[in-house]
Design goal:
There is one protein chain. By secondary structure, the protein is mostly beta strands. Helices cover 12% and strands 35% of the residues. It has a 15-stranded mixed sheet that branches.
Length: 842
């Protein structure tokens, strides 16, 4: 799973009750894996177009772009903005009579449907249910609107409503689809069926939709039903789609256009009959073409493409395939605007790339027309109305903003201070603001190089990323190493063509881009494989129900051996956001980390990842307490081609002390040796008895005191700075003033073998760190006293119970190709359990 098995018990060191200030966007949706449906289904802001609708006469388009609606005549290069204000507007649909546009508006923590009067520009609400209401579509006669809403039990259902004339109260929406518990073992999707992406038949009697009813994998295939509540559904065709199919029924009623990655790595447009049948592709390319809409005469299709990286709007002829770009070279704004130009430089005046956030007092974001707009996945409602927006810049950015006060924040990784300022932008005026960033520290000058060991260049998002653009994003975050973990997304592996041994050609003397692998099984946990020396490992599936990979074999231990044969490092990624409890028998427990640590197959652990860092640390401490030496790494699990995501590459990063020059093999060797610290903001220095992180101190038997030196520099406030020894707080260092710096010398009593780390963290989230809370930790410094190894009987017994749960789940599973597979897995578990049992008795 993307995040580890959800269990729960209070462990020993730790963390205070956490800090629920950051809450996910759109909490009304009660479905798993929000980072998928939110990006790939629910509309989000992109700097280019994201959805389009035709005028009834086929001469104009209305489309969403940068969170507002725009109107543009085909053949013209001028677009007129038709909605504005402190909200985000998406998914327009033009009524058959041309008088009204229905669209989705994100504001006040909900997405509601609104009606725009085309002549006057007045906007009136269609829904006010506080839910997520999306994909509105007029019926052919204009009497009803079909749409999808989460209002019923937080799940996607299909509704219709009849808008009234003259702005009077509209009829209550009617739910068409049944709430059905499929009882299927779905992985990325709820066990409850969903119903999305409605399109009307030309006679208005039926609706075609996408549903995963009766299927385990994907967002579903195509179904038809009469446009009435409780009507039976008739399946036309099943594909393992991923949210983006969005079918559109042709005006003549015979065909349906939709977006699909059938047999490919990217979505293109396909045609099938309105009765299903065998589809054929309408477009071709190694990029996405989505959101197709027929013109009213059926001769053309408007669609969204990311062929150029950013999103763009195209109209193509169905016969002949001629394509025409709809480019808004000139823009007429609905409200007063000005121009803001930002120049980011260092102390010498040299241009610096950076991450920039520009917002109005309401918290609505703005970005340059040619930038990739991104937004955070969660936010504190007490601080702001919307998610934190940002874009990356090469040092110079120019954008159109509402006239008035504009707030600017600039971030360039943890080695620079955070810049904040309010700028007044008058109507019609270009304001230039110069931003100088002076270093807090220069770690590369001392041989420390920062890296993110868990990035997915492309993974189904709105944009199409490339190595040069990913390098641009990373440099704006002041990141030196990016491990692009190529990975399956259901039936495809979007970045597999980029796999190579050694650095990507975009690399330089101070930046390395590597194309590595995340082994992405459904049961044993996910692993990062860094530095593969030969080939990408296939297939990437185990425990995938109703497929030829339904067996629980191979285990991660087997895959780790294959990776090590290629000279790769193997690590466990995004481990824990809830506390594992082997005593909780309410769900199977398969997570293989303690097995592979016992068998010597794990080279690093993402102590910081898409997880809770303090909870992950507690499990890490248990492993260290039993004598295993496991370095700390950090991987954001970033999806940098997403518009809405949990942070960019380098949100969490590992600093590796690998020498004066940047070399990948040396960097990996130093990572494996534990010469690391991980952080999302605070910078740490730590030594014990003059020895650095990753070192071992050997002492004769007896008690003594060792001198620890600690240092902290941070661009955000920190609440706690602690030395952790053998899983317990050995010393707390007082933080004063703005709590961003400390230097101290601490005397530590030592009488037994073990380990020490320095960690820093805060009690709540702190922007612009787009994470649960600021956190940093060093890898351990190890201490050996006499001939007694580090051991903890309680912690070893904890992992014995964990593996016993895995054995029970393995025996209970029937998803084996042969009994020999099951027996082999049980032997692996037994060997690992014996290791833990031995350590529990020492």
């Amino acid at each position: 799973m993307r995040r580890a098995v959800a269990l729960g018990v209070m462990l020993f060191v730790g963390a205070q009750p956490l800090r629920a200030q950051r809450a996910p966007a759109l909490r009304q949706v009660d479905l798993p894996h929000a980072y998928y449906w939110r990006e790939m289904y629910v509309p989000q802001v992109t700097s280019g177009p994201s959805a389009v609708t035709w005028s009834p006469d086929g001469t104009e388009l209305i489309y969403s772009m940068q969170g507002t609606l725009w109107r543009q005549r085909i053949g013209s290069d001028t677009a007129a903005q038709i909605t504005a204000g402190p909200a985000y507007d998406y998914q327009p649909d033009w009524s058959p009579d041309g008088r009204t546009v229905v669209f989705s508006r994100y504001a006040h923590d909900a997405i509601e449907l609104e009606l725009l009067d085309v002549a006057s520009g007045n906007v009136t609400p269609l829904t006010a249910n506080g839910a997520v209401n999306v994909e509105p579509r007029w019926s052919p006669d204009g009497s009803r609107i079909a749409f999808v809403s989460s209002v019923y039990n937080g799940r996607w259902h299909l509704f219709t409503t009849a808008p009234s004339d003259g702005g009077a109260q509209h009829a209550a929406p009617l739910r068409l689809t049944d709430d059905n518990d499929s009882r299927l073992p779905r992985y990325y999707y709820s066990k409850w069926d969903h119903y999305i992406s409605p399109t009307w038949s030309p006679d208005g009697k039926e609706i075609m939709l996408v549903s995963n009813r009766d299927h385990i994998h994907g967002s579903g295939g195509f179904w038809r039903m009469e446009a009435r509540s409780g009507a039976p559904l008739r399946e036309l065709r099943y594909e393992e789609t991923t949210w983006k199919a969005r079918p559109d029924w042709s005006p003549d009623g015979t065909r349906v256009v939709y977006s699909s990655y059938l047999g490919r790595q990217w979505n293109q447009l396909w045609l099938m009959t309105s009765e299903g049948g065998d589809p054929f592709p309408l477009t071709y390319g190694e990029f996405d073409v989505t959101a197709p809409r027929w013109s009213r005469d059926g001769s053309r299709i408007a669609c969204i493409s990311n062929e150029g990286g950013n999103t763009s709007l195209w109209v193509m002829d169905v016969l002949g395939g001629r394509k025409q770009a709809i480019v808004p070279r000139a823009r007429r704004y609905r409200e007063p605007v000005g121009t803001l130009r930002l120049n980011v430089v260092d102390g010498t005046g040299r241009s610096l790339s950076a991450r920039i956030s520009v917002t109005t007092p309401e918290g609505r974001g703005y970005a340059p027309d040619d930038a990739w707009w991104h937004a955070d996945e969660a936010f504190d409602r007490a601080e702001r109305q919307f998610e934190y927006p940002y874009f990356h810049s090469n040092g110079a950015a120019e954008l159109t903003v509402p006239a008035g006060r504009i707030h600017v924040e600039v971030w360039r990784g943890p080695e620079y201070p955070v810049f904040r300022a309010d700028v007044n932008v008058p109507t019609g005026v270009r304001v230039t603001h110069r931003i100088t960033l002076e270093r807090l520290d220069n770690l590369p000058a001392r041989g420390w190089w920062s890296g993110d060991v868990h990035v997915h260049m492309n993974y189904g998002g709105a944009y199409r990323n490339t190595p040069p653009h990913l390098a641009f994003q990373a440099r704006a975050e002041d990141l030196h190493v990016v491990e692009n973990l190529i990975v399956n997304k259901e039936q495809r592996i979007p970045d597999i063509s980029y796999f190579r041994v050694g650095p990507d050609p975009v690399s330089s003397a101070t930046f390395l881009l590597l194309h590595a692998q995340e082994f992405h099984t459904s049961v044993w946990g996910h692993m990062g494989l860094l530095g593969l020396g030969s080939h990408y490992l296939l297939p990437e599936y185990a425990g995938y129900p109703n497929t030829a990979a339904a067996s629980l074999a191979p285990t991660n231990a087997t895959i780790a051996d294959l990776a090590h044969e290629q000279g790769a490092l193997v690590g466990y990624v995004h481990p824990f956001d809830t506390k594992p409890d082997p005593a909780d028998t309410t769900a199977p427990l398969f997570y293989e980390l303690p097995v592979d640590v016992a068998l010597g197959k794990v080279d690093y652990l993402e102590v910081m990842g898409y997880s809770d860092h303090l909870i992950t640390s507690e499990i890490w401490y248990r492993l260290l307490n039993c004598g295993f030496r496991l370095p700390a790494a950090a991987g954001t699990d970033a999806f940098p081609n997403f518009a809405s995501l949990r942070g960019p590459p380098g949100l969490v990063r590992v600093f590796v002390h690998s020498g004066a020059t940047l070399d990948h093999r040396s960097w990996l060797a130093a990572l494996k040796a534990g010469r690391t610290f991980v952080t999302n903001g605070p910078l740490l220095e730590f030594s014990v008895a003059g020895r650095a992180v990753g070192d071992e101190i050997r002492l004769s038997a007896g008690s003594r005191r060792l001198t620890a030196r600690v240092g902290l520099r941070s661009n955000v406030a920190v609440d706690h700075l602690e030395i952790i020894g053998n899983g317990k707080v050995a010393a707390s260092i007082a933080l004063r003033g703005d709590r961003t710096a400390a230097h101290d010398t601490i005397s530590i009593p030592v009488s037994t073998s073990g380990w020490y780390v320095l960690r820093a963290y805060s009690d709540r989230a702190e922007l612009p760190v787009l994470d649960l809370y600021p956190f940093a930790s060093t890898s351990p410094i190890y201490v050996s006293v006499g001939d007694k190894p580090a051991r903890s009987a309680d912690d070893a017994a904890f992992f014995v119970r964990w593996i016993e749960r895995m054995e029970a789940a393995t025996r209970a599973s029937t998803a084996w190709n042969t009994l020999a597979e099951q027996a082999a897995v049980l032997r692996t578990l037994a060997v690992a359990k014996a290791v833990w049992q031995e350590r529990a008795q020492q």
